[in-house]
Design brief:
Rossmann fold; alpha/beta; 12 strands; elongated; 7-stranded parallel sheet; binds (2R)-2,3-dihydroxypropanoic acid; 5-stranded parallel sheet; 2 domains
């Protein structure tokens, strides 16, 4: 493996296919690093499977967005591919198992979006809990004729008039879950967390008390999801789990839509099994389950958890840095299947670089 980095213009492999436009900070970095970046410019909103297959077959590295499904068939059709640099921290859009088997490194963009996503989680929590969007609509429709003590009553976040501390239940206590918990201190909330992949992580933290999922659902006034989408977490929150929550509870999801059974959520919200939901992600983006958009007790956002100017630029730079490392045969700094570099399958792919 090359120890010293080639100078710009000396890359043995150069072609990077970017599946849709990313902030210029990323494409500028690719160009400065000597890569030939092609940004998809076909018709429609995004490249279709056939366009992706053709692009993958003739590129050295793929820089993908979370909207593109990089599945086993696509990966198998690209024997020359040196890596997939995903422009997201989540990577459920990439078949990681197949990529690893085929010797393809995959990277993501962690850390830089942690605080931005935690901020948005709180915007949803506050917005859904205090009915901000509903109240805004009420104003715009000219419905505010007379103040009243029962007007648009929501849920307390800090201890309210009843003096009761509210409980925030965090499902998935990784970097973002932890950042959400840190903010809860300012609202004097009790925080409980369920982190199935590593319960020790919660135990080691002073920010939350570890609990099982059933206790979290029973106890929490606000439930916030920060768990990656895997086969084990698909529909983690379905009809039974929604029924187990308090009727005053608010559900917030800034992780992946399919962690929640969205049709069951519509029923739970409609029937008052829970009070409200704040959603940034959906099971079948960009569409929503039938009935969701008509429910007043929802705040619905178009997957903008990490959408601040600074964070999206940083994500683009990280994805580009990973892509350049892949082109050079160096380990990508944010590689998520690092063992791949020891595999014979990777050595075969990368042999043309050395
Ligand atoms: C991610 O990175 O996974 C978010 O969903 C989008 O930034």
């Amino acid at each position: 493996m090359a120890e010293t980095e080639p100078q710009a213009g000396e890359l043995p492999a150069r072609r990077v296919f970017v599946t849709r436009a990313i902030p210029a900070a990323g494409t500028d970095l690719l160009a400065a690093g000597g890569a030939q970046a092609t940004v998809w410019s076909g018709s429609g909103d995004a490249p279709g499977p056939e366009e992706l297959r053709a692009a993958l077959a003739s590129t050295d590295v793929l820089l993908s967005l979370l909207t593109e499904q990089i599945d086993a068939n696509l990966l198998a059709a690209a024997p020359q591919l040196l890596g997939v640099a995903n422009h997201a921290v989540g990577h459920d859009n990439v078949d990681l198992e197949t990529a690893t088997q085929l010797g393809i490194p995959v990277s993501n963009t962690p850390d830089v979006l942690t605080e931005t996503t935690a901020d948005l989680t709180w915007a949803l929590l506050l917005g859904a809990g205090r009915r901000i969007v509903e109240a805004d609509r009420f104003m715009r429709l000219g419905n505010y004729r007379l103040w009243g003590p029962q007007l648009l009553l929501g849920e307390d976040i800090s201890p309210g008039g009843d003096g009761q501390r509210k409980t925030l239940g965090i499902i998935g206590f990784g970097r973002i879950g932890e950042a959400v918990a840190r903010r809860a201190r300012g609202f004097d909330m009790a925080v409980i967390a369920y982190h199935p992949s590593d319960p020790e992580r919660v135990r080691a933290s002073e920010l939350a008390r570890p609990v099982e999922l059933s206790e979290l659902l029973r106890e929490a006034d606000f439930v916030s999801l920060h768990i990656p989408l895997t086969t084990a977490t698909r529909h983690l929150i379905a009809a039974d789990e929604l029924q187990a929550m308090k009727p005053t509870a608010v559900l917030v999801n800034t992780s992946r839509g399919a962690v929640v059974d969205e049709a069951a959520l519509v029923v739970a919200l409609r029937e008052g099994q829970i009070a409200a939901a704040g959603l940034d992600v959906y099971e079948r983006e960009p569409t929503m389950a039938t009935g969701l958009a008509e429910l007043p007790n929802t705040v619905l956002l178009p997957h903008v958890g990490s959408a601040s100017r600074g964070t999206r630029e940083a994500m683009a730079k990280i994805a580009a840095t990973n892509a350049l490392a892949m082109l050079r045969g160096n380990p990508a700094p944010q590689c998520i299947n690092r063992a791949v570099y020891q595999s014979a399958a990777y050595a075969r792919r990368a042999s043309r670089l050395w």
